[in-house]
Each structure stands twice: as structure tokens, then as C-alpha cells.
Amino acid sequence: xxxxxxxxxxxxxxxxxxxxxxxxxxxxxxxxxxxxxxxxxxxxxxxxxxxxxxxxxxxxxxxxxxxxxxxxxxxxxxxxxxxxxxxxxxxxxxxxxxxxxxxxxxxxxxxxxxxxxxxxxxxxxxxxxxxxxxxxxxxxxxxxxxxxxxxxxxxxxxxxxxxxxxx
Length: 167
Prior knowledge:
elongated; four-stranded antiparallel β-sheet; alpha+beta; single chain
């Protein structure tokens, strides 16, 4: 069996070069976790404490527990996301417990969108959404730097047009 040649970093030419997501996505998700579960904790404590009794306010510890559990889980999930551009397709890998790797051939791409909601814009982030002929292979890369999202959109569109013209 023939193997690829080694580059300066010791990788074979066949191995994809994985790119992780920027830390701004993790900061945004953790802030949203703290805001929503913090408000839920305070609201539960006040509502139950005033309406039912101070002992019932202890149920406010449940959303606080979810917050303390969710903080490291968001970090694990963020670290699991990555993507790689190869010669003929784009790889997207994600998942901690259930790992998922999506392969999107450039020739199958019909539309590449860059989106950024108000919270994402506040954190300087954008997402790339890939649409293919088969809806099951649509893919998304969240939390990219807007310049990287636009670069990726332009490159994927160019490669998609070149590959589909050859069909």
C-alpha cells in the first residue's frame, strides 16, 4: 500500500488539516448559559420563596446545578467542533458523546450562506451554512470570525462551481 509524502510537520499529504473554532464562540455560549440560568435561579428563588415559603426556594439550586454542569460541557462541545478543507470535499467533525463527521463534496454544494444573528454580531462571529442537493448532507460551521466565514464561503462557492461544471 502506498502512503503519502511527509511534509515539514511530519504529516502525510493525505491527512486533512483540521481547523478548530475560535474561542469567541465558547465565550458567547458560556455567557448565554450564565445569563439564562442565572436569571432562572434568581427568579425561582424569589418566586418560590415569596409564594410558597423560604424552604421551597432551595429548588433554585437546580438551575444553578445545571449551570455548574453546563460550563465544562460547553467547553468539551466547543473543542469537538472542527473542519478541514480537502481537494474534493469539506469535512466537518463535531460531538463529544456521539461523534459525527460530515463530508460535503464541493460538486454537491448548491448554496453557501454566511449568517450572523445579533448575539453573534456582538461577539464578532458568523456561521457558514452549506446547502447541498440532498438535505441530509446540509452542514453548518458556527462561530467563525466573519472574515474567515466570508473567505470560506467564497472558496467553497468557487470550488463548488468548478466541480459542478465538470459533471
